[in-house]
Amino acid sequence: MKAYSIHNLRKSFNGRSILDVDCLEIEAGRIYGLLGPNGAGKTTLLNILGFLDQPTSGRFDFLGKAVQFHEKDLLPLRKEVVVLDQYPVLFTTSVYKNLEFGLKLRKVERAERERVIDEVLDLVDMTSFKHSPAHNLSGGETQRIALARALALSPKVFLCDEPTASVDVENQAAIVALLKQINENKNISIVFTTHDRLLAAGLAHHTLVLNEGRLVSTSYENTFPCRIEPENDKQIRCRITEETGILLSSTKVKSPVAKSRLFIDPEKIDLHTGEGMQGGGNCLQGKILQLMEESGRVRVVVTVGFLLTVLLTREKYDSLRPGIGDTVVVSIVEDAVTLSN
Amino acid sequence: MDIFVDSLLSAISLVFSLDSEMLAIVMVSLQVSCVSTILAGLVGVPTGFFIALRRFPGKAMLITVLNTLLALPTVVIGLFVYAFISRRGVFGPLDLLYTQKAIVIGQVMLIIPLVSALTIAAISRIDDRYRRTAMTLGANRMQTAKVILFEARFGITAAIVAAFGRVISEIGISMMLGGNIKGFTRTMTTAMALEYDKGAFSLAVALGIVLMALSFGMNILFHFFQGKYRT
User: Fold this and answer.
1) E strands along A141-201, which residues?
2) Which of B138, B143, B150 is nearest residue A79 as measured by Cβ atoms?
3) First-to-last CA distance in chain B?
4) Which residue of A lies nearest to B154 if distances are taken between CA atoms?
5) Which of A175, A301, B111, B131 is buried most, with the most CB atoms less than 10 Å from its CB?
């Protein structure tokens, strides 16, 4: 079953398009990570999914039913979905009253409210804070109580805007574990936004990438702002740093621009190790900083003047056996590069 | 200097002896000021709330007008209301002039802009995340409005306290519309002006002490309440 089925969703503000999604389908009971740079439209999309904002146009189905964005129709839908803000706020009452708020709106009996509140406080390991004033909590505690407040409502979909961005490492681990647990035990669909590629890889079943309001098929990594300089009649150089750039044929640029955003597909980058290798052309020399196993492939992070991620197949990795600190050459073919404005 | 010290000692004695004339004046003042503040609160708070949360053409201009009205002199309001409720005015037959009701009308007009403007400021300071949080937890418009009002409670209370302070200390409206009738429309400020004219300072200073004590007491109470919720 699909939690959301969205087609041709557009959102514009003051005539400027901020979201332009052709097709997005979110399966119920799964975890989706929404990646993208600042200003990509992640929070706007999350607010639309949470029925807190409405699209300018588009078809929007929720749990198999078409959604009309009229206030009276949205109220029952909001009771199925909870949005957790990046920096959540707690009402300036007690923790208990914060947790009770949504339950009271749903006319849950007092005894049941008490039971649910105890259960979710136990889940976030904050039982001793039950009657504490909410405004005295730390950032991590606030985040956990906000999570508990959302979970108390047993939503069908839980939307989290950068759930671990504003908390320390200890709280990050607790929140990630909690999100996994509620997805597995309560079958709650989760969509979360993040800048953290590793968090998305570790937590999400599916990863979506938004760039300039559009869902893109590229991964979020290896996306760099670049300056475009003509090299000769047929080639341009996309300068990522003062020292490092990628040579491309002029036809890659549709209209003459000075600045662009460059994406290098990590799966199409070739990695060479061993003696006699040299940089030059689109071959960049660097050192391996990180190696990580990921879904049957190996993620290699190489510093070549900037941090570049290369995804190797298991076979390729076994044949090269690169090690951390090894000097390598990465070869970037033109096919691996996409330029966008 | 002697006259000041004598008046002050005599005033303190009046205050502690709970002089009946002084108490009657204080009661009239409190009565009209409380009624004015409640009525202005009932109109000003929802008005300010509506203006702060709604988008409509001319909103900025309306806020500017409200802010301008904050500086409106009490005598101008006194004159304006007088024109309507004097015997020759539209509401002359209601016989309101020189009654406590007339003072209340003038004072309500004086402080509605104040309550509205301070409510707008209080609501505007509330983080939009409270609205979105209430909505995502399932609140309808009315329930969301209640959440915002609750979060703005200190700002709105401050608006009400400021409005009360404004009316209890004003003199123009009380004098022009109340007429300073002993035991009926004589307020603390009009009584102080009269005593000053008579050259008798004891009661004037005593009333001044009560006025200051009232203001001080209200502010202490407000800050005590507010302090409980400060991090």
Assistant:
1) 157-161, 189-194
2) B138
3) 47
4) A92
5) B111
Mean pLDDT of chain A: 88
What is the set of domains in chain A, with CATH numbers?
A: 2-216 (3.40.50.300), 223-340 (2.40.50.100)
What's the ipTM?
0.80
Over residues A311-335, the pLDDT tens digits come to 899 999 999 889 999 999 999 988 8
Q: Which residues of B touch A82 (CB under 8 A)?
A: 136-137
Taking a C-beta distance cutoff of 8 angstroms, is the pair A156, A189 a contact? Answer: yes
Residue B46 has pLDDT above 70, yes or no: yes
CB A104 within 8 A of CB A42: no
CATH topology of domain B2-227: MetI-like fold (1.10.3720)
Strand order in the sheet with A16-27: A16-27, A2-13, A57-62, A65-66
Instruction: Quote the tokens at residue A139.
Output: 């950032």
Identify the residue with better confidence: A183 or A255: A183
Distance of alpha carbon B195 from alpha carbon A324, whole angstroms? 93
d(Cα A88, Cα A134) in Å, to the nearest integer? 12
C-alpha pair distances (Å), A2 with each of A24, A65, A265, A272, B213: 10, 10, 29, 43, 67
Helix, strand, coil distribution of chain B in percent, nearest 5? 80, 0, 20
Q: Are strands A81-84 and A157-161 parallel, antiparallel or unpaired?
A: parallel
Residue of B nearest to A94 (CA): B229
**Do A288 and A328 meet the contact criterion of CB atoms below 8 Å apart?**
yes
Instruction: Retrieve residue B9's tokens.
Output: 């000692």
A82 Cα to chain B: minimum distance (Å): 5
Residue B138 with chain A: CB contacts under 8 Å: 75, 78-79, 102, 105-106, 153
Does the pLDDT of residue A84 top 80, yes or no? yes
**How far off is chain B from A13, nearest CA to CA, in Å?**
15
Delimit the domains of chain B by residue range. Answer: 2-227
Report CB contact under 8 Å: B129, A88.
yes
B130/A105 Cβ within 8 A: no
Q: Give the pLDDT mean for B62-88.
A: 93
Q: Is the pLDDT score of A126 beyond 70?
A: yes
- On the CB side of B223, CA atoms within 13 Å amount to 6
C-alpha span between B189 and B186 (Å, rounded): 8
